[in-house]
Amino acid sequence: MAWLVTGGAGYIGSHVVRALAAAGLDTVVLDDLSTGRRDFVPTNVSFVRGSITDAELLASVFHQHSLDGVIHLAGYKYAGESVSNPLVTFHQNVTGTVILLSAMATAGVNRIVFSSSAAVYGTPTVDRVTEDTVTNPQTPYGETKLIGEWLMRDMGVATGLRHTSLRYFNVVGSGTDDVVDTSPHNLLPLVFDAVMDGRDPKIFGDDYPTLDGTCVRDYVHVSDVADAHVSAATVLMNGGPLEPVYNLGGGTGTSVREILTAVKTITGIEFEPEVRPRRNGDPARVVADGSRASRDLGWAQRHSVESMVASAWSARKARS
Questions:
Q1: Catalytic residue (one of 11, 76, 121, 141)
Q2: Residue 75 backbone dihedrals phi, psi, to 5 degrees
Q3: What domains sit in the chain, N to C, each tagged with a CATH number?
Q4: What are the tens digits of pLDDT across the range 175-207?
Q5: Which of 122, 193, 210, 315 has fewest C-beta within 10 Å?
């Protein structure tokens, strides 16, 4: 028996695959490699190249492999670009999830851990976001993640699907030098690109009502996020109860300037951030309450800001 990891060749997904292996759980990876990388998948893991929108391929995967459940990370993950590509976003994230759930129902596989996002909250009006905070997604990407959660809920009612959804906040770091965050939209890759090219990284707004005037976000290490998936899958296998959704956040928050200070310390590269005007829609502070995940999944923020940056920098240098 094994767990199917959709999107398992991606930055987060490949960490999930490694965490499952460390827990003694076999995996099958399905990824179309549109953003994932084949070399991110360990050579001893079964790999299928293809999309969750391919119903025939999914049927074949479920027929050929005996599966305990699915960890569903595949999808179009660029929130900003989803505004100009809503149809692509909905096709990948909603239609693809419908096709996946249909294949699961046909095959009698009734456990799933769904990769959701803090984007379902939009711009929160509270300092600490709980799972009961009003959802108000402000991008097609955030909307598709919320619809994905609804699909899990509705299939739970209709078929008894056992499920939970994990709402990530800002995922950073690396658990191995073999895997690096290559997203052109994430903070640390952008900062590393700048300092390695001799450019000063940018800060968008330094006049927010925070301690140092820059935006505060909840950064979580990718290995801690991966471990939460393993915990959720294990509870589902053991028949234990889970809430429909969990926040994965550290609960304190780190400012953009604090992140850049850590980058200076870890890399040893001197720079002076270039301050630009605020970007529209950027809230001053978004921090998660992860106590529910701590209670049920043993979730904890096990990495300091410095260790998160150091692990990301180590992986980036190894890939340079």
A1: 141
A2: 160, 175
A3: 2-171+219-248 (3.40.50.720), 173-218+250-291+302-319 (3.90.25.10)
A4: 999 999 988 788 899 999 999 999 999 999 999
A5: 193
